[in-house]
Design goal:
106 residues; mainly alpha; 2 strands; 55% helix
Length: 106
């Protein structure tokens, strides 16, 4: 029973750290050259995201609406690599997941 409880706590903490890392990664754009191909509605979404964080221009993060807009419409898809790399590598970015993932048995 102790093992089940510990696994539950570790799984929850891992998920929280992953969510923190997802929320923390952003990329700012000062012009739309890298956002070519995005329809006006998606550009407005990214502009609104920037304004919500007191930034100018456009801002992309790893939330579903933002990420989906970029991956669906942007002609330059390489920009997302930094965020994806951070998510795939547990020691990068906020919410270091290495201590947790190292204690969860495969």
């Amino acid at each position: 029973m102790k093992l089940v409880l510990r696994m539950s706590k570790l799984g929850s903490r891992f998920g929280e750290n992953l969510l923190d890392a997802t929320r923390a990664w952003t990329r700012e754009f000062q012009d739309t050259r890298q956002l070519q191909g995005l329809p006006e509605a998606e550009l407005n979404l990214l502009a609104g995201l920037a304004r919500s964080r007191d930034k100018e221009g456009w801002l992309a993060d790893l939330s579903h609406p933002s990420f989906n807009a970029i991956m669906t419409y942007a002609e330059d898809r390489g920009f997302a690599e930094g965020g994806l790399y951070c998510l795939r590598n547990p020691g990068l970015g906020p919410g270091d997941r290495r201590p947790v993932s190292g204690t969860i048995p495969p």
